Amino acid sequence: MAATGKKSVLFVCLGNICRSPIAEAVFSKMATDSGVVDKWRIDSAATSNYEIGNPPDHRGQACMKRHGVPMQHVARKWVIDSGATSDWNIGSSPDARGLACLRKHGVETSHRARQVTNDDFMSFEYILCMDDSNLSELNRRSNLVKNNSAKVELLGSYDPQNQRIIKDPYYGSDEDFEKVYEQCARCCKAFLEKN
Ligand SMILES: N#Cc1ccccc1-c1cc(NCCCN2CCCCC2)c2ccccc2n1
């Protein structure tokens, strides 16, 4: 338990624009609906630096809207701050193409992609990722951090239907985003019930 007395979970995927923002939003809505969201620190991040500063993918935003999951609310409320490990983009605004796409779909959000930091391995109780590539990268990174205490696991390990991998939908379709949503919903429900 952190000094704040809160439980904490960081959802992680490759770019922090597709799977992990969906998992963060779904978990936060479930915790809110259960009346326990104030007991949790909830965030998401990327293993890569591909999309730092960019908003969630428009297909994921559209999927969240279809399911009535307030991604914008979650991002504004729970992303206390976000930042990059590098100084490459200091002062830059989010990628114009991503913001233009969101405006086209009438969807605004304040979540911006960030990369996992060494501090995350010391300050989050759980780091839940999507596939074996994320898992091996996170385990490699955690071994480099002296006081790492985070439990690094696959979010899919909580799936009652035992689908342990949540596949990257980046080159996929709206159906692929729907499958990401369904898997995140099952896994986040089971994870919340366990904690
Ligand atoms: N990589 C891979 C990959 C492999 C299989 C399936 C999906 C992806 C894939 C590709 C992406 N961006 C395109 C390539 C980025 N550049 C790669 C070389 C370095 C400079 C950056 C993604 C971006 C955001 C979230 C998920 C992504 N996932």
From TrEMBL:
Keywords: Cytoplasm, Hydrolase, Protein phosphatase. One of its GO terms (molecular function) is acid phosphatase activity. It holds the Pfam family LMWPc. It is found in: Cytoplasm. Its EC number is 3.1.3.2, 3.1.3.48. One of its GO terms (cellular component) is cytoplasm. Belongs to the low molecular weight phosphotyrosine protein phosphatase family. This is Low molecular weight phosphotyrosine protein phosphatase.
